[in-house]
Structures are given as structure tokens and as C-alpha cells.
Amino acid sequence: MATVRTGGCLCGSIRYECFGEPVFSLLCHCRDCQRQSGSAFIAAARMPAAGFKITQGEPRRYISKSDSGNDITRVFCGECGGPIYVQVSTRPDLIGLRVTTLDDPSWFRPDANIFSKSAQPWDHMDPSVPSYPTYPTGHAYPTKEP
Ligand SMILES: [Zn+2]
Ligand SMILES: [Zn+2]
């Protein structure tokens, strides 16, 4: 039976359902995630976009460019500002779900620390979780054709 997980933003205006299992679970230390979250890193799981559905509310979107030139759409609640997920233009089949928006985020286990090159010196990373300066091989997003 497919696992369905539910979650939402801080104020509760946005609610979602998420089916399926993560294809990659990560802690991202990039400066964009730091700036958007206001914290040292974010915990995210790449999930199949086909299994993700907003069940309540209309989130807002903010689009920025990644280092590789891809558009990254950051989807968040316009009321409380809570981030929900990101989507990269070259992989519309995946979403990067902010796992701490889940009603139960306790099952999450990170596969990797990514963008450790911009990790803060005061941020202690669990040494048992592998770290990569950017993406581990095979997990970078494809770059858009010029
Ligand atoms: Zn909200
Ligand atoms: Zn990031």
C-alpha cells in the first residue's frame, strides 16, 4: 500500500498530501536555502511530483536562478511565509519537499549533506552523513540547454 504523508505550513492555510518514497534525502547548506529559511541548512526530500497534491490553499511562488542557470521555483505560503517545496525547471517530475513541513517528519534520514562548501563554520554536521561540496555524483540537476 502506498504511503500517504500529510503536511502544511505554519499557519495551516496550505495543506498537502504526498504519496511515494524519497528518491534522495538531503540537508542543503547552500546560501539560497540559508537566506530563504533564515537557518544554517534545510532538510529536504526529493519526491515524485506526480504523488504531490496541494489539498488546501493557494501557495505563492518565487523563482530564482541556480548557479547552473536553471530556474528554481520556491513554493511557500503567502500568509505565514512558510516554505513548502522547491521545483527545478529541468526536473518537473520531482519536487524538493521541505520535510519539516510534514505532520510527522521524524522518519526522515538524510543521505547527504550537500553544498558543504557554503556551510557555516558554526554549523555542526553529523560526521556519519556523507558531505559533498555541491552535489554527489548523479544527483545534480541537468542544466538547461542554452
Ligand atoms: Zn501559512
Ligand atoms: Zn540549497
Folded structure, characterized:
With 146 residues, the chain is mainly beta. It has 1 helix and 10 strands. Strand 1 and strand 2 form a beta hairpin. It is globular, with a radius of gyration of 15 Å. 27% of the residues are buried. Bound molecules: zinc ion (2 copies). One zinc ion binds next to loops.
Short description:
This protein has 1 helix and 10 strands; from the N terminus they run βββαβββββββ.
Overview features:
globular; seven-stranded mixed sheet; 146 residues; 1 helix; 10 strands; binds zinc ion
The percentage helix is under 10%
SS-based class: mainly beta
Ligands present: zinc ion
How confident is the prediction overall: mean pLDDT?
95
Low-pLDDT sequence parts:
none
Largest sheet: 7 strands, mixed
Number of helices: 1
Task: Trace the largest sheet across and list its strands.
Answer: 6-7-8-9-4-3-10
Subunit arrangement of the protein? single chain
> What global shape is seen?
globular
From the alpha-carbon coordinates, what is the Rg to the nearest angstrom?
Answer: 15 Å
Strand content: 35-45%
How are the elements arranged and paired?
Blueprint: E1 4-8, E2 15-19, E3 24-28, H1 31-37, E4 42-48, E5 52-56, E6 60-65, E7 71-76, E8 83-88, E9 94-98, E10 112-114
Bound molecules: zinc ion (2 copies).
